[in-house]
């Protein structure tokens, strides 16, 4: 089967299976480059892809500066494509299965209290000075992620009907495409209620969506990324990426530092596998040790 047709057939299959638009774009970008590499190297049929082709392509990516995490993501996309070729009986076995993932240097950045204050105060000043909707919206995006840990796609798809002000919950469609309910604090309920009142006054007719663009239409993934890009340029934090994921990691970090159980953190973060949660807990082990040394009950007992 011609590789270019196999690639398009794979994308069509993912669309038929209702894969998210974001994942489709990732396949187009990451897998598409591998397909281009194969064709450039005279590999025109899917059946002709070998272990060596996959490994050499990833080696080239590494030489161009790709980190281990990026290499592993590309490998997962290639494996998924070749698994589909096996399902379609185009090939008998998946040659990418023999390619081992690279070991990653695990480092997850989080914001400090001072950095969070700087970002929120930045938007507060603009909001008060200019009565700006965009500043208020961006402020509330930060507050909402810090208070719930919701993901980037969940932010842009959040609707007012998803917020239960009485029972203090937010409902989102998570990675599993299931509707999940997250508890929210009194403080976040108050912030969201104030923001809703502002939106009604500002727009007249309020949108279904909590966070909208300047024309009162739903934000896109790109428009949200631009929010964080702009904020990152203004803050200029050294070696720290300003993104929705960093805010989500900060939420998880504070839960772990508070002494919350891994099981409870898993539920709030909505990790399907507790091993993912444990990775975060283990990562902040030194800080947990400091907290333990400071607050351990044995400190106050004569033993």
UniProtKB/TrEMBL annotation:
Keyword Protein biosynthesis tagged = no
User: What positions does the domain Core-binding (CB) occupy?
Assistant: 1-86
Query: Keyword annotations for this protein?
Result: DNA integration, DNA recombination, DNA-binding
Q: Does the keyword Cell inner membrane apply?
A: no
Q: Where is the Tyr recombinase domain?
A: 106-293
Give the matching InterPro entries.
Answer: CB (IPR044068), DNA_brk_join_enz (IPR011010), Integrase-like_cat_sf (IPR013762), Integrase_catalytic (IPR002104), Integrase_recombinase_N (IPR010998), Integrase_SAM-like_N (IPR004107), Tyrosine_recombinase_XerCD (IPR050090)
Pfam families per the UniProt record, alphabetical:
Phage_int_SAM_1 (PF02899), Phage_integrase (PF00589)
Q: Which family does it belong to?
A: Belongs to the 'phage' integrase family.
Query: This chain belongs to which protein, by name?
Result: Integrase/recombinase XerD
Q: Which organism is it from?
A: Neobacillus ginsengisoli
